[in-house]
Amino acid sequence: MRFVLWGNGNRGVSCLETLLGAGYRPTLAVAHPQRGKKWYASMAEVAQRNDLSVIAPEDPNAPETIDRLRGEDADLFVLAGYGPILRQPVLDVPKRLTINLHGGRLPEYRGSSPMNWALINGDEFFSLSVIRVDAGVDTGDVLLERTFPIGPDDTIVELHKIANEAFPEMLLEVMREIDADKLRPRKQNPDDARYFPLRFPEDGLVMWDVLTAEEIHNRIRALRPPYPGAFTYYNGRKVILVASELREFEFRGEPGRVYRKTDEGLLVCAKDRCLWIREALFADDNAPLADTISRYDRLATVQAAAERLYLEGRSPC
Fold first, then answer.
1. What is the pTM of this model?
2. 202-311 sits in which CATH class?
3. Backbone phi, then psi, for 11, in 5-degree steps?
4. 139, 129 contact by CB (below 8 A)
5. How far apart are CA 90 and CA 77, in angstroms?
6. CATH no. of 3-196
7. Which of 132, 164, 181, 220 is deepest in the core (most CB within 10 A)?
8. Are 277 and 266 in contact (CB under 8 A)?
9. Average pLDDT of each block of 10 consecutive residues along the chain (317 residues)?
10. Residue 212 and residue 231: Cα distance in Å, rounded?
């Protein structure tokens, strides 16, 4: 079976290595254009080390790219972490189908960043799906699905580790089913569909009188580095919230106020109760917040912002 692997980052690398180890060799690898140093592995470099042809088009839907793809005479396109949306002319190129690795249960988690959203939503489980790509957004038949538990303190780093270990084996299973003509597709129920949009760095803002302790904890673990991070402000400086912990014992107080400062971290109150901030760094110099902040100091709240506007003689409304 002739196939083209479209991939990026650790997901693309792990899938490529697993496929090669099992005797599945793509005729072509399609990678993202490389711009500067990245924190994740380069699939293009791994492909080149294995003497594979590699392209990294600026526009995968451009006519010249489609002409190049047609020359591969591929039965199958495989998407493993590849970001840009492929239009119908590209999807029409392979003779059999295009499949994609999606980090969420379908149809409940269509759209962007499903693993981040699962953590933000406080889910106790997340699913990985291999799907047939059609003209819609994550609307194609589900070819294989696996579900994994989410621990109360698991972060996006742990979920990606699970995905990077599970996806290659899932892909290999589907490839073998395609080879044997034994696919068992599941139609998605559109009545259960939910769509989650692309996230932006500014979406991680934490105002301590707006969100509950659990909501803040979930944002911190969903957005921790190497993602841009949940963030707040202290004395006008941006602070990246790296790690947190919820305790069963409830300590309550005024939102944004720091009530304890110990070797364990900072106990900060949210809208409903307090949580421990285990690690927080200033965005401008990466210095620990704990080295600067004092007990009873306050982090960013809507109330504090309104007070400041009033003192400056400006209306907050």
1. 0.91
2. alpha beta
3. -65, -45
4. no
5. 10
6. 3.40.50.170
7. 220
8. yes
9. 94 95 96 68 87 94 96 96 92 96 97 96 97 93 97 95 96 95 94 94 96 98 93 97 92 96 96 97 96 96 82 67
10. 15
